Amino acid sequence: MHGSSQEALSPAASAATRELFAGFAAGAANVTSGYPFDTVKVRLQSAPPGAYRGALDCAVKVVRYEGLRRGLFRGLSSPLVGGTLETGVNYLVYSRVLAMLASSAPSAVAGGGAGGAAGPGVTPLSHVAVAGAVAGVALSFILGPTELVKCRMQVARSSARYPGGPFQVLQEAVAAEGWVRGLTRGLGATLAREVPGNAVFFTAYEAARQALRQTSDLQGATTRRADLQGALAAILCGGAAGTLMWALVLPIDVAKTRLQTASPGSPWDVGLMQQWAMLWREGGLRSLYAGLTPTLVRAFPANACQWLAWEAIMRGLG
């Protein structure tokens, strides 16, 4: 009885292990390729009006006065660990919820973009959206503390501000506001960004993959040609999905950055709606979409690398 139970669980456990490992690799690819752009975005979002003429001016000044590694890559360790972990959890929860939804509606069989294996049916986009939203809830609780550290280290003008690195940021946050408030500052804004954003991200990717599968003809194609077309599809669809998501959620991200970098009791230490009102009074749409250029420039290559890594490893692991 006990042995048969283990055998029954092994396929799901094996699939979950593959999804988690592929998600880890996807997260590392995303963070490493997109981090310099993210630093510029955070600097633009947190800087007072007129500090920079634009994204390029910001990047040039950061490199000139702080150096490449200590400027554009400052604070990489925390988001690299956090990004690897959260992306692994994101894909794991997404894939498991999608599998549960598929089992409740057996006529819908997942296609290649959802979990790496092609099937005779097509994944309903409603299932994809629900699975993405649920995964967004899970990853928000990981992203909250890691992005708090990342944002505070990125806006520091000198490495001397946090000589103790990420742990010093966390220690200061806890000392100032306690364990709960200190580590969850901006969590509500993170949830507001990730739940709808994640639903859009996965739905846009799967919709684009389904559209490409309908137009591509791989019948009789060599394995190498099929792999190349799959890689190209992952790059194009992944980059487009990431770009769309960030274009939609950027005003939430701007408010989250302001909240997470605000000192307790400061004018910016307010909720999401108040943040938007203050941003609108400060500069209208320009303030609400602060950092738009580096965000979109980063979004395509970073998410293309993420989906390429995910698809490649899922195929490699079978």
Automatic annotation (TrEMBL):
Topology within the bilayer: Multi-pass membrane protein
Where in the cell is the protein located?
A: Mitochondrion membrane
Superkingdom to which the source organism belongs: Eukaryota
Q: Name one Pfam family in it.
A: Mito_carr
Solcar repeats mapped onto the chain: 14-100, 123-211, 229-316
Annotated TM spans: 231-250
Keyword Transmembrane helix in record = yes
Q: Which UniProt keywords apply?
A: Membrane, Mitochondrion, Repeat, Transmembrane, Transmembrane helix, Transport
Chief place of localization: mitochondrion
State if Protease is listed as a keyword. no
Read off the SUPFAM superfamilies from this record.
Answer: Mitochondrial carrier
Q: Which residues form a coiled coil?
A: none
Output the InterPro entries linked to this UniProt entry: MCP_dom_sf, MCP_transmembrane, Mitochondrial_Carrier
Q: Which GO terms describe its cellular component?
A: mitochondrial membrane
Q: Which family does it belong to?
A: Belongs to the mitochondrial carrier (TC 2.A.29) family.
Protein name (record)? Mitochondrial carrier protein
Source organism phylogeny: Eukaryota, Viridiplantae, Chlorophyta, core chlorophytes, Chlorophyceae
